[in-house]
Every structure is written in C-alpha cells, then in structure tokens.
Design goal:
Rossmann fold; 14 strands; three-stranded mixed beta sheet; 397 residues; alpha/beta; homodimer; seven-stranded parallel beta sheet
Chain lengths: 397, 397
Amino acid sequence: MRVFILGIDGYLGWSLAQYLGARGMDVGGCDALLRRGWVAEVGSTSATPILPMSERSVAYEETFGKPLAYSEGDLCDYAFVASCLESFKPDAIVHLGEMPSAPYSMIDVEHCTFTHTNNLIGTINTLFAMRDICPDAHLVKLGTMGEYGTPNVDIPEGFFEIEFRGRKDRLPFPRQAGSWYHQTKVHDTNNVTFACKIWGLRSTDIMQGVVFGTRIDEMGDDPRLCTRFDFDQAFGTAINRYCAQSVAGHPLTVFGAGNQKRGFLPLRDSMQCLHLAITKPPESGEYRVFNQFEEVYDVTGLARKVKGVAEGLGLDVEIANIENPRKEAETHYYNPDRQHLIDLGYEPSRDMETEITVTLTDLIANRDRIEAHREALLPDIRWDGTRRKSAYLSKGA
Amino acid sequence: MRVFILGIDGYLGWSLAQYLGARGMDVGGCDALLRRGWVAEVGSTSATPILPMSERSVAYEETFGKPLAYSEGDLCDYAFVASCLESFKPDAIVHLGEMPSAPYSMIDVEHCTFTHTNNLIGTINTLFAMRDICPDAHLVKLGTMGEYGTPNVDIPEGFFEIEFRGRKDRLPFPRQAGSWYHQTKVHDTNNVTFACKIWGLRSTDIMQGVVFGTRIDEMGDDPRLCTRFDFDQAFGTAINRYCAQSVAGHPLTVFGAGNQKRGFLPLRDSMQCLHLAITKPPESGEYRVFNQFEEVYDVTGLARKVKGVAEGLGLDVEIANIENPRKEAETHYYNPDRQHLIDLGYEPSRDMETEITVTLTDLIANRDRIEAHREALLPDIRWDGTRRKSAYLSKGA
C-alpha cells in the first residue's frame, strides 16, 4: 500500500511514516517545514532534538529498508500538490499538513488570515488534485475534537439522526469551534464533505483528541528517528506541556477553573488509529467521521495525574490555576462517542500512567532544552486580542 | 445613522446606498470593482448600462443631497479596511463585498481558492477592524439561504432547540451548502458567530433568498442611478436569467427535473429587510440570523410565472429542461422559517408578477445588450469539473 503523508516533518507525520514503514508500506510525504519556524516565532523549540529531513530520510531508509519519497514544498501551491500525487500514485493520502495551534491562530489578524489561507487552501488543493489525478485514493484528514466545542448533548461521530417538528433527517452534527484554528478545521470538514459528495472522493475525517507522548516503539533507540515534542504555550498541548513543566520545575498551569474536559490519547494509539483508517478505507463517495481519543479527563485531573507520575520519578511538582487566556466554558457537559474505531478493531495499547512515565523520562534527558525556553511555558496569547502573561490565581495542590 | 457598505458598486450595494440615502442616512462604502471583471470573464456584462463609481457618486450627491463617502480598495487588505472604518466611523457595516456566484466558484481550483480567500479574508479583516476600531458597530452580513442546503426537516433561522438522547441544547442548525461559493458563506457564518462570542461584536447574518428585479423606486428615472443586472450563467440568478432569456427569445432553461425549491424576493424587499436590520440592531455580543425571502417556488413554477408575465407583454416564450450542470437534489422537502423579519415589521411591498413586469420592461429597453451576450445564457460550468454546454432534455411547455 502506498501512503503519502502531507506534513511528514511534524509530530504526527514523522511518527506515522515510521509506523507505516515498519509495517511494509511504501511511504512518501511532503512538508513546507513551516512548523519549525512557527515554534521559533513563539520563542520555543522542540524539547527533543530533531534532524533535518535530509538526515531523517537516510535514517528512515536504513531502518525500514525502503526509501522515503520526500518532497519539500507548500500545499498552497497547487502545481506542487499535483506533482506529488502524480509521481507517488498514492492509495491513501494522510493530511497532517496544517497549522495546528489555537493560540497561534489567535495572535492577531495576520495569524488568523494566515491560518485560514494555509489550512483551507492546502486542503482544497489536495481535493482538486485527488479529483484529477487519483480519484480512488483515500483521504485521511486530520480534524480535531475541538470542532464540536462543548454542546450540552452527547457528541456523535460527525452526523446524527434528529427529529425536528415531527420530521426526521440525518444531519451533520453542529460544530462550535473555540479558536480560529479550530474554525479552519470546521471549514475543512465542510469542504471535504462536499468534495466527497460531488466528486465521489472517499475520506475519513478524524476528530482527534489531544495527543501526548514522546515516542512510538518503531523509533527504537535511534535519535535520528525521534519526533518533535512541543511544550510552548502555542504548540504544546495540555499533557505534553504539563510533562515539560514537571521536568523544568515550573508549576503545572491549569487554565481558569480547570473543569474543561477533553479527550486524550497517546501518540502510539493515534498511530494505531490512523493505520486502521488507512487499511480499512471507506467506499468511493463515502465521507466518514471517527472521533479518536482514549480517555476523557478534565484538565485539573490531568494535571494531578502528571504530578503523581512525576513525583514517582522524584520530581517536585506543584499545580497552579492561572487566568484563562481563552474564552471557553470552564464547566460543561462532555460525552463524545468513539465507537467507529473500536468497531474497526482499535485497542488501547497501554494505560496513561505508563505513557506519561515514558514521556517524562525522555524529557528529563532534554531538561536543558526546556529550561532554555522556560518563558514559553506560561501563556500570554489571549482570546481578547491582547498579549499579557496570565496571572496565577492559586498555588499549591 | 452612519452606514458603511462593503461592495457598494454591486447589484445590492448600489441599490442599498440609495435606499438609505433617501432615508436621510449618511452612507459610505468601498469596492474593489472586481465584479465587473468577473462578469466580463464569463463572457457577459450587466444588461443595464452602469456608470463608473466616480459618476455614480456625483449622481448620488445630486439626488440625495449628501456626499457618498466612497473608497476604492480590496477587503483582503487589512490596512484598507481599517482606514475605511477609522475615517467613516460607522454605526452599521453592511457586508455585501463577496464573490457571489456558485458556478464561478466551481470553474476550477483557482476559482475555488480565489473565492475562499476573497470571501473569508475580507470578512476576517472586517471582524478584526471592527474589534479594534468600532466594536459597537453592527455588522449586517449577507449570507444565503443556500447555506442550509435542502434538509428533510424545516429550516429554522440559524439555530434550533433539539433533544438528543434525552438531553437538550440550542445549537446552530447544520449547514449543507451546495457549491464552493455557498461553502464560503457557511465558513463566514461560523467565523462571524465566533467573533461575536469572543469579542462581543453584534451581527445580523442574513440568509438571503434569490433576489430579482431591476430597480427600486429611489432610482427614479435617472439612468446614472441604475444598478447592475446580471443574466449570465454564473452571476445571473434564476428569475433574472429567465427574464433576460424571455427578452432575448431564448428558451427559459430549467435545470434538470426542475423541482428544486428556493425562496425568492424582489430587490426592493431585500432593501426593506436590510434597512430593518440596520435600524433595529441586536445587542452587543448578539449574533442573530434572519432568513430573508418572500415566497418559495420551484424553478419550474418560476419559469411558468415569468413566461406568463412575458407573454402578457407580447413576448414569445418557451420553457426547456436542460441537463443540470449542478449536483443537487432535484426533488426535496423545503420549508424554511422567516419569522424574524416579520416580527421587526417586514411587509412585502408588491406581488411577484408586478415586479417581473417592471423587470421585463427594463430589460426590453436593453435587449441588444443581452442578445450580444446570448452565449452566456446557457450554462457550461459543471459541478463535476468539466466544461460543456448543457444539452436540452425537453422543449416546449
């Protein structure tokens, strides 16, 4: 099976290339290498040292016994996207090539418009190139659980059957995203749905929870295969940031009341799910949605979990509530479905504590890199458009 | 009251300037004049001769006794948008400044990406400029009934109360748009909703039905005040195109089975509704949706209505079904609400037949201009991405 990964230099992309390569697939991919610049722009870097794609490709071929078909270029350039698909002839395209940070998209009008252009145009170019070059290929598109927001009802997987004024229909579940970035994912969802409908493309749209962890088994002990790990306010997500804070002796920063619930899953399970989606494609013309997460936690419970594991490793950790830089519901109902992947055979590979232990151990080895970017751990990008470090509301716990 | 119109050179924009000017409002506006080029690109022109904005502005001031604050520029340029709002200081901003054609957006990848960039970035720039310059102003944003698609349930005005698995919530009604253009309007809807929520902006989002007609009373007999009238396959909407076809002795081209239902309203009622929205603004932070149309017809019934009126004026008219260039449901349930505007005092000004009579009379005076662009009347832009004139499926009726 031939799989082409858009955004192969990223946290998920580089991991997925290896997960698929280890399973005998022919893997190609492209990247514009923008992520490295975005993280530098917000004053941070990957906690794990990562190599340029030229060296990663060499390591990949040595390890997995096949070349990695890598091209550097921008998804916003249609000719580039078309040339990638024409030369690689993929059975599946995994689209991880977007700007993935809510805070980054909220910085100012330039970052908001950039996020829209980058994410939407890249996806549109991919859809048109698929239509004209490989209409039978399967688009596995990364969305986010954040598209749904926090409605006061259960969250189905993409669609729901409703009765309204005595009539019934199956409709897309309403999306209520909480940042410009999340909005671009909703826009993508609508555009991909439409392309499947009018052109008969097939797509799996993955509403992914928050992924955490430093590694998958396929990376072994080769540092060249290591994937990036972001911990800054913009590109570091909750558990990863808590882990980095634990290692750097920084309070674990819980936003506001800390009752915000989210779905989480370890990096290795994210890979398992993407692999399942790839190997079990939908029918031509079918657009299907998978909610992808392992467990739901509120961000306080999560901080306590990280603190517990970290203390077991001899780290001294405190949890602090800080002003919430976001505008979001801090206390809400949250009960999303996640049956579709289980139906395909998804089995969680291990428990969260074990995964956090591995992550903390990897980060302790890179403590200096985190401490050198300590300023990036406390947020100052606010949803109201101002830029100000969140004040501490409480300490201890 | 100070009202700034984005897209003031357009069909609705130029009409609205006069409708508001006649009611004593201070009117300003901007335009990038792109519409004139788009229509030329698809091989057509306005059936009514229209003047450049420099001459329109002179006529405006002579007629309504106040200068028109006009600026030429692109909404995709944030600095331009900000300078407009800073200098005009509007109480309301009416956003009619988007690329409004479904077929134009479906031509190819360049037209799809252009439509996305033009429409989304223009709206985002407007939202950020409002936040930073005039956060109390009211954004009256033009959406379209086409955002909803054709669900098998009633279409509420933007939001609906649902019960799902025993729990209740008020949620955005799911959108299922049928073209890239319509998708951009859905994306805008999501973005405007979000801006109101996080920044406390106020907005009325108008899901407008298909507008038709050549004039409003305020234009009088001054040809300089005449608004544009498009009849080509891309920018001419159903009734307007039928009227132009009647005048040019071209069959009225009904797409496919012709049972597609849509909401329609005359230009003068569109103006009345926009005026009502402007004069009765929502609260700060409120995002409200108006479904705006007067009557629902299927496109065959509409063709028969135009034919009937045209024959009364001595025109010889036939109706023909042609291959549907679009991918859409041709037979479907359709029952949208439209109570919000009625609650504010909306009263339809006259019946459809009268309006069609006026339109046909105006078009007969410009028959040469339509006949010179006769090729533009029959569609060749197809939803499957090919370009081929629709074949006739039937003649007569």
